[in-house]
Structure formats: structure tokens, C-alpha cells
């Protein structure tokens, strides 16, 4: 089988009909769809079983996050390529998979993404918008450094060698870490510009009861998870030599942000940022183990990698 399309769902019933219908309307049929449900409470599973009987369903007893669910699905998947696709997406082009098959025949595709638009046809993650700075923070860059996890195509061999997604990342920034490690290991990471995906953006991770930063209207949980995961990404993927320069700057900026939010009496955001640091302190043993594995297998040097990153600090530009 050529493609295994893997969708992780948590209370995404309102998106699933459009997403799955767009996949089943493809003119290329050498694929399977696996839906991993992270203990949804919106009747998603019964809905898919009834309306889309061809979809293979994996039901988890609890929600361990995006990476864990995707890794689990790959163990049952039969495809040569894994296509990780969020439920709040549409594949409008019925020739999408046909075009993907052609791209694979023409290029050595290891890790790839598509051009991404919102449902109003506004381009989202294209070119520099998928860049990161040298502190691991996403934003504009010289060219795409990482492929967005909402629509990520990975060769099975590559995914296996990288041991999949890091399951310590509940959600957010796991695509940055995965693409970073893929580059370090010498794999090709590219955007396939002939392919287009339409993404609601946050639709699969925005429950109504989530608390928001009152200054910038950013979900506090998202800031915690992103900050926590970026710290772990730096600790795993940079050499110890470069970490000696990177980490002090990272934590000085984080401290400045904490002071700013204190001045705004934004206690929830201060708590989230400090909590992200303590998580990495308490989990340093597993991070150092992962660091050793990455450094042992890497091919690309830090200095070669830095050439692919934005030299300015994205956090200061937003």
C-alpha cells in the first residue's frame, strides 16, 4: 500500500465529515485511512463508524496527546508513506494523492508538507512562515525549516529511524522537533508546492473552556506546552557546546517575559512559563537520554543547521 493517512481526533466531529469525504473522493485509491480517537466525548467514533465504514478506527482509553496517538497508528499502518492529517483540514483537489505519488516518483521525499491555506483561501504556512530562529521559536525565516504537523508526509523508513514523534510533547511544536531531527539525520525536508491543504487552524485544539492570556488572547495551555516543548527540543537537538551559548540567552528572554507578565498582573501566564521550566528540570534525565541518541546519529552539524534558521529572535518580532 502506498499511503496511510492518519488522523488524530479529539472531539472533532464537526470537522470529520468534510475531511474524510475529501479524502474518499480522491481519484488515487492506493491508500488507507486510520482515525485515532483520543477518548472523544462528542460521539465522533460512532459517527465515523456509521458514515465512513471504510475508515479504520483506533480508540484510546485516554488522551496522551498528538504524538503518542500518531505513533500508535503507525504500528497498524500498511503504507510506504504516512500522511498525518488534522481533522480540521480539507483536501479540495481530488488529484492530491495522485500528485503526491508523482512527486515521490520524481524526488527523494523523506519529510514533506503542502502549501497550506485557511478555509477562505488565505495562504497560511508558506515559505518563510515555517521558519524558526536559533532559539527554536517559530516564525518567519529565510525558507521553510519545518513542515506543519497539520499535514505532514513522512516516508516509513524515515519515521522508523527517527523513532516517530517525541511522546513527551502532548501537543504543539512536535512538528518542529521532528523536522529538526530529520534534518540532523540527513533526511530531505521540503514543501511540495504542487499540493494544497485547507486548514481551519486551531480547530482541533481549541476547546471552549480553555483559559486565555488576557493581554494577547493566547491560550495559556498552548503557551505552556509550546514553551515546554521548545526547551526540550533545544536540549535534545543542539550539541552541548552550542547549548552553552543558546540556553543562557533563551532563559534571559524567558525571565524578561515573566517580568513583563508580572507587571501586567497576568498571573496565569507567569505560572505557565515558570511551570514549563520546572517540567524540563524534573524531566531532564529522559531529555539527556534523548540528547545522546540524537547526537550519536546526527550527520548535519549545528553550524550547518544554523544557516537554515532565522538570525533574528522571532519572539521579539511578534
From TrEMBL:
Keywords, A to Z, come to: Glycosyltransferase, Membrane, Transferase, Transmembrane, Transmembrane helix
Every Glycosyltransferase 2-like domain range: 4-122
Q: Which Pfam families match?
A: Glycos_transf_2
Q: Per its UniProt record, what SUPFAM superfamilies does this chain match?
A: Nucleotide-diphospho-sugar transferases
Q: Name one GO molecular function term.
A: glycosyltransferase activity
Membrane-crossing residues? 238-260
InterPro entries in alphabetical order: Glyco_trans_2-like, Nucleotide-diphossugar_trans
Top-rank taxon of the source lineage equals Bacteria
Query: Record's family?
Result: Belongs to the glycosyltransferase 2 family.
Q: What is this protein called?
A: Glycosyltransferase family 2 protein
Organism of origin is candidate division WWE3 bacterium
Q: What is the lineage of its organism?
A: Bacteria, Katanobacteria
Amino acid at each position: 500500500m502506498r499511503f496511510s493517512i492518519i488522523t488524530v481526533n479529539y472531539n472533532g466531529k464537526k470537522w470529520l465529515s468534510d475531511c474524510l469525504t475529501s479524502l474518499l473522493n480522491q481519484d488515487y485509491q492506493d491508500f488507507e485511512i486510520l482515525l485515532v480517537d483520543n477518548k472523544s466525548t462528542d460521539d465522533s467514533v460512532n459517527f465515523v463508524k456509521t458514515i465512513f465504514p471504510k475508515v479504520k478506527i483506533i480508540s484510546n482509553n485516554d488522551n496522551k496527546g498528538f504524538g503518542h496517538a500518531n505513533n500508535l497508528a503507525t504500528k497498524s499502518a500498511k503504507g510506504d508513506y504516512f500522511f498525518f492529517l488534522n481533522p480540521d483540514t480539507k483536501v479540495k483537489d481530488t488529484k492530491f494523492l495522485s500528485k503526491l505519488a508523482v512527486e515521490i516518483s520524481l524526488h527523494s521525499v523523506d519529510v514533506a508538507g503542502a502549501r497550506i491555506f485557511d478555509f477562505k483561501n488565505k495562504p497560511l504556512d508558506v515559505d518563510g512562515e515555517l521558519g524558526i530562529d536559533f532559539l527554536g521559536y517559530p516564525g518567519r525565516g529565510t525558507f521553510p525549516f519545518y513542515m506543519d504537523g497539520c499535514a505532514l508526509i513522512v516516508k516509513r523508513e524515515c519515521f522508523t529511524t527517527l523513532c516517530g514523534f517525541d511522546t513527551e510533547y502532548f501537543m504543539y511544536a512536535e512538528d518542529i522537533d521532528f523536522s529538526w531531527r530529520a534534518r540532523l539525520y540527513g533526511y530531505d525536508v521540503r514543501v511540495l508546492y504542487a499540493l494544497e491543504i485547507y486548514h481551519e487552524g486551531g480547530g482541533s485544539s481549541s476547546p471552549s473552556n480553555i483559559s486565555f492570556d488576557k493581554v494577547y488572547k493566547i491560550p495559556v495551555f498552548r503557551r505552556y506546552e509550546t514553551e515546554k516543548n521548545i526547551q526540550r527540543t533545544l536540549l535534545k537537538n543542539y550539541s552541548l557546546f552550542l547549548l552553552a551559548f543558546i540556553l543562557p540567552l533563551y532563559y534571559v528572554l524567558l525571565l524578561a517575559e515573566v517580568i513583563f507578565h508580572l507587571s501586567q498582573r497576568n498571573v496565569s501566564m507567569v505560572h505557565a512559563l515558570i511551570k514549563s521550566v520546572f517540567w524540563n528540570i524534573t524531566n531532564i534525565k529522559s531529555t539527556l537520554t534523548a540528547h545522546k541518541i540524537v547526537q550519536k546519529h546526527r550527520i548535519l552539524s549545528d553550524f550547518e543547521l544554523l544557516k537554515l534558521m532565522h538570525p533574528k529572535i522571532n519572539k521579539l518580532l511578534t
